[in-house]
Design goal:
The chain is of the alpha+beta class and 389 residues long. It folds into 2 domains: 53-230, Helix Hairpins, CATH 1.10.287; 254-382, Glucose Permease (Domain IIA). It is built from 3 helices and 12 strands. Strands 1, 4, 5, 6, 7, 8, 9, 10, 11 and 12 form a 10-stranded antiparallel beta sheet that branches. Strands 2-3 form a two-stranded antiparallel ribbon. A hairpin with a 6-residue loop joins strand 2 and strand 3. Helix 2 (21-136) packs antiparallel against helix 3.
Length: 389
Amino acid sequence: MKRGCLITTILLGFILFGGTSFAEEKIHLNRRLVTEEKKLEDIKRQLRETRKTVREIRGKERGILKELEDINKRLSRKRQEMKRIDESLKKTSAEIKSTGERILQLERERRRLKGLLEKRLRGLYKMRNGGMMRMVFTEGSSLDIGKRYRYLSVIMEHDRNLMEDIRGNILSLDRERARLKHLRAELNQRRAEKRAEKKKLEEARKERALLLASIRKEKKSYLKLMEELRASKKNLSQLIKKLKKESRMKASGFALMKGKLPMPVRGRVVSFYGKVVHPKFKTVTFNNGIVIKAPYGTGVKSIYGGRVVYVGWLRGYGRVIIIDNGSGFYTLFAYLSEVFKKKGDMVKKGDIIGLVGDSGPHEGAALYFEIRERGIPRDPLAWISNKKR
């Protein structure tokens, strides 16, 4: 564990102070990618909330539209009721006018009959008070005079009956006119009530129409915001896609060689990366690399080009050489018997950089091999194309 920390410290020193501008650029790119992804998540959250708000506003809009529809139906009914009342008022007023005219005609007829009756009464009165004597000395017999008297009496009786009938008709018409006036008053009251109800409905409709306009304006603003958020989401998604593409492009060189690199030496892997249980003591350790069993003095090759950043002895690793392969990747070769490169040397893929030895704690000749990405150990076998070699 202490050995792993030592290697990590050395590699971090190379990363921080070794002038690896590529690694710094990659870190900056990753930070920007994280920032933009966070922005994208915020926009997605805002978009979800805005969609929810728009759904709620649309629900309110539907509710107000239904209320407006109900109000309009009720207004239509009130107009129809007022129309019927107006028609009834018109008819009633016409009947009142007609009744009044009939009453006037009857009054005139009654006055005319009254005048005739008064004349006849005066004639009878004269006949009863000396008029009879004058009639004796006039032409005609007493029989004719009696007939005239009876005739006048009959006419007067008929006139009185007519006047009584007229009086009765006038009384009936007066009652009818009073009833019609009462009906007109009731109709006017009902019309006033319907008009007041209609006015309230019109005010309610106006209020709902204003509220609907306000809600639609609010909906329009939220829809506009939603479009802006969608545009931002699209732009950010494109930017993130571009940044990821750039990140992949930055991950050129060693980073793109995963599963394609050769074994550093011909041999058999006897200790693997990861947790290892000791067969005898059952203790658990974590291997940061692999151990490849190979004959002593076998040539160890660089698996990828790079620059030597460390050559020396490390406790628990024996003789060590570390190569900076670029993009934040390092390869470490240990347990060596000899090293053919010095710090600062440039190496190419396939160059022999040393020989297998037994300078490490492993029994017998072997090569210890690590791959690290910015100081973090990775499974070397994941990078090897042919595990047998």
